[in-house]
């Protein structure tokens, strides 16, 4: 089926095969699927390609909106976006696959000479190579090559041809960057704490330590909606410990480290922390 003819029908068919799907508007850009998130009001990254720390019942746009639940896809809240949708996208990581997006002939030639053959899907300018297995998404890993898997989305262009191979180490290696030199905790924190002068309610240092440990655990144990979980955790920590000046750079660095271990970038952590402080009027 041509997804542009009936995007909702195509999405429901894919969801029935356990492929998490989401609608795209013109330009291959996700929708803000609720009024509160329209026009990036919730703090999503540019063009709604990365979900912001919205306070909806669930993340409502970008890769985090992808779902296999027909009730959600058919919901009244999503009816408008399906009427306006130009295409269907899917979350490769949620489907257990990694998409190597080859954007031109040179990239395709490199892949054919370097990587094991696998299922391929023609695109407007190149090909998608699909591998079984997941990894962190990454853009511009080499000229004309993007990786779309966890925390990413790809346009659905058909099932493709060929047998899907296991994700090779050569593709994983493309996303590996040289480690940055160690930095002191005070240098890694790019958001001022702005410690308040309010009365300290922490009867013992153990109270604060337990709160930070529980926040780390909440982030570490998140299985979905990581971006929203990070924001809400930061909000909870700041609402409890943020006004009396007890939070230190070391505490915040621990939270950032836990979030980055789940795939958040330092920029996303900084944005989530800033948005949480703003929401609390700090």
Helical content band: 25-40%
User: On the 0-100 scale, what is the average pLDDT?
Assistant: 79
- Structural class, by secondary structure, is alpha+beta
The span between the termini is 51 Å
Largest sheet, strands/sense/barrel: 6 strands, mixed
The topology string of helices and strands comes to: HEEHHEEHEEEEEEHHHHHH
Poorly predicted regions are 178-190, 194-198
- Count the DSSP helices: 10
* Cα gyration radius (Å): 21 Å
Total number of strands: 10
Shape: globular
- How much of the sequence lies in strands comes to 5-15%
Descriptive keywords:
282 residues, alpha+beta, six-stranded mixed sheet, 10 helices, 36% helix, globular
Brief rundown of the structure:
This protein has about 280 residues and is of the alpha+beta class. It has helices at about 5-15, 70-75, 75-85, 105-115, 170-175, 185-190, 205-220, 225-240, 250-260, 265-280, and strands at about 20-25, 30, 85-90, 95-100, 120, 125-130, 140, 145-150, 155, 165. The strands form two sheets. Strands 4, 5, 6, 7, 8 and 10 form a six-stranded mixed β-sheet that branches. A four-stranded antiparallel β-sheet has the order 2-1-3-9.
């Amino acid at each position: 089926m041509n997804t542009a003819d009936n995007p909702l029908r195509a999405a429901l068919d894919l969801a029935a095969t356990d492929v998490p799907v989401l609608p795209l508007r013109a330009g291959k850009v996700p929708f803000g699927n609720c009024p509160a998130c329209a026009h990036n009001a919730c703090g999503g990254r540019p063009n709604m390609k990365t979900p912001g720390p919205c306070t909806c019942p669930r993340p409502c746009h970008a890769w985090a909106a992808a779902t296999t639940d027909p009730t959600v896809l058919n919901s009244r809240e999503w009816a408008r976006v399906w009427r306006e949708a130009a295409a269907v996208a899917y979350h490769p990581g949620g489907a257990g696959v990694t998409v190597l997006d080859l954007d031109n002939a040179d990239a395709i030639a490199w892949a054919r000479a370097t990587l094991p053959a696998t299922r391929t899907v023609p695109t407007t300018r190149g090909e998608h190579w699909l591998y079984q297995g997941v990894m962190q998404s990454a853009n511009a890993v080499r000229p004309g090559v993007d990786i779309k898997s966890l925390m990413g989305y790809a346009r659905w262009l058909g099932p493709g041809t060929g047998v899907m191979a296991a994700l090779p180490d050569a593709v994983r290696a493309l996303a590996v960057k040289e480690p940055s030199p160690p930095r002191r905790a005070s240098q890694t924190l790019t958001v001022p704490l702005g410690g308040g002068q309010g009365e300290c309610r922490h009867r013992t240092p153990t109270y604060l330590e337990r709160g930070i440990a529980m926040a780390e655990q909440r982030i570490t144990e998140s299985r979905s909606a990581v971006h929203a979980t990070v924001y809400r955790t930061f909000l909870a920590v700041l609402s409890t410990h943020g006004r009396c000046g007890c939070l230190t750079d070391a505490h915040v660095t621990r939270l950032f480290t836990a979030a980055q271990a789940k795939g958040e970038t330092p920029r996303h952590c900084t944005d989530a922390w800033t948005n949480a402080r703003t929401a609390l009027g700090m």
